[in-house]
Amino acid sequence: MSQDSKVKTTESRPPVQSKARKTLPVLDPSGDYYYWWLNTMVFPVMYNLIIIVCRACFPDLQHGYLVAWFVLDYTSDLLYLLDIVVHFHTGFLEQGILVVDKGRISSRYVRTWSFCLDLASLVPTDVAYVRLGLHTPTLRLNRFLRVPRLFEAFDRTETRTAYPNAFRIAKLMLYIFVVIHWNSCLYFALSQYLGFGRDAWVYPDPAQPGFERLRRQYLYSFYFSTLILTTVGDIPLPEREEEFLFMVGDFLLAVMGFATIMGSMSSVIYNMNTADAAFYPDHALVKKYMKLQHVNRRLERRVIDWYQHLQINKKMTNEVAILQHLPERLRAEVAVSVHLSTLSRVQIFQNCEASLLEELVLKLQPQTYSPGEYVCRKGDIGREMYIIREGQLAVVADDGVTQYAVLGAGLYFGEISIINIKGNMSGNRRTANIKSLGYSDLFCLSKEDLREVLSEYPQAQTVMEEKGREILLKMNKLDINAEAAEIALQEATESRLRGLDQQLDDLQTKFARLLAELESSALKIAYRIERLEWQTREWPMPEELAEADDEGESGEGTSKDEEGRASQEGPPGSE
After folding, report:
1. Distance between CA 378 and CA 386 in Å, rounded?
2. CATH number of the domain encompassing residue 329
């Protein structure tokens, strides 16, 4: 029984662990849950950053709402504690992979400065209330150490918001408010230290009517600090040393704050101008060019109206340049999510492979046409097809007034001219005049781009040609005889090519045989030459050549003996 119970207990443990993992998951630092937790932590950090100094400098505020402050204080402490727990359950990237091992996460977190600051911010300094009293909120100044969490939340929000420039301005205004708030609290505390109403610079005596109210005290201090930090002037002159030091410090802070504000605003304006330049073409250069070339005012007005339409209605014509820094696959996904629905409406592209459509989406070029502007004219060479995204276009006669049909959003034209269909009676020429009735947004797909994509998808090319053929049949624009002639000519050409390929293969085979025979003959000749050389070495030498050889050897021996005796006797007169 005991063994069975042990087995049951061991078997019942894994579900408990899996349940614990579900209740306390590992957070992705780039995920939504972590982002919203950071936004939650903004409130306790801002509460401590603003309220503690205010309670310390305005005694009436501390005494009047003591219970509320205790509730808010320990609620923020609870959030601080939960934030440490979140830190222990927040993964990190290693080699691009999210680490979810809680042991490694914990060991990494405890070795960082962030862990030290988080612990220091939760040191229970409130215990000193027992000795110093409940009205000493300065004991909670260590809660300021959690301010880096506020900056992290602001950075994440700036990258996620759709209006980063507006958020930067709002963040800057918040920083300015916090600085003025702190300065106003310090001004009131200094006035209390020097004595209310002692001179014109400090806060007036609260005994005067109206100056005893807490709201008046804070608003007067905030107004006075705003005048100092904005260097507006119109403030009483300081009279004591403490007042002079306070003014000097505020002036230095004002100079630094003014430089920071100017730099931040310049950065925001520059980013906005850069974004506009990236989204919309620069019209200043075009306007200057038209002025230098003395373009007539009517045409110049049309160009200006076109630029104005782009900016007012947020039309973009350079999407490729905007998305160029994204990875290729991510750029394709963005383009697919924006334009795939439009491309899939085209009849010849329906039922095509998804990968083919993704390739084509990256090739689409947005174009905007002004009212009365011709997209194409009859007889023009068709090098691209158009898909209507927004607006209306009319098929007009040669006079430009008579309308045969009106094309709306989702329709397309010019698709047949970019596909080489055999028997096409119109060839690659435009068969109609297309004019924009108002401002029209089109997608343009060039013949070269389509051919480049279809070279990787031959099956899709066959399907598209068949669909184009069906469309031409319905339009009575397909010459069956010409198509048959082209098919016969293509088959004959392919047959000749196959014959040439076969002949080339035969020639290569014969050439290989000749080369092999040549190598074999060369080896045989070399072998025979070597054999003849060995045979000639064994032949007997003729008698005349043998006698001449003997005389030469004896002569050489005599000369060698004479030279030896001469060397032994030495030179004459040596004795």
Report:
1. 15
2. 2.60.120.10
Residue 9 forms part of a structural domain: no
Residue 98's H or E segment, with its range, is strand 97-99
Q: Which two tokens stand for residue 525?
A: 């000749």
Lowest mean pLDDT segment, chosen from 8-12, 172-176, 242-246, 482-486: 8-12
Mean of pLDDT values over 51-55 = 93
What is the per-residue DSSP string for 478-518?
A: B-HHHHHHHHHHHHHHHHHHHHHHHHHHHHHHHHHHHHHHH
C-alpha closest to that of 349 among 461, 427, 266, 474:
461
Same domain, 208 and 71: yes
Domain assignment present for 138: yes
Q: How far apart are CA 427 and CA 425, in angstroms?
A: 6
Report the chain's C-alpha Rg in angstroms: 47
Angle between helices 32-57 and 164-194 (to 10 degrees): 20
Q: Please tell me whether residues 414 and 302 are part of one structural domain.
A: no
Q: Using the 8-state DSSP alphabet, how is residue 26 labeled?
A: P
With bands split at pLDDT 50, 70 and 90, how would you rate the model's confidence at 147?
very high
345-382 confidence digits (pLDDT tens) = 776 677 777 777 777 787 888 888 888 889 888 888 87
Give the 3-state secondary structure of residue 368: strand
| Count of C-beta atoms within a 10 Å radius of residue 39 | 12
At 309-353, the pLDDT tens digits run 777 776 776 676 777 778 877 887 887 787 777 777 776 677 777
pTM for the model stands at: 0.60
Assess whether 289 and 358 both reside in one domain: no
Q: Is 357 helix (H, G, I), strand (E, B) or coil?
A: helix
Hey, what are 166's tokens? 């507006």
| Dist CA 155 CA 160 (whole Å) | 9
Residue numbers of the domain that contains 304:
280-314
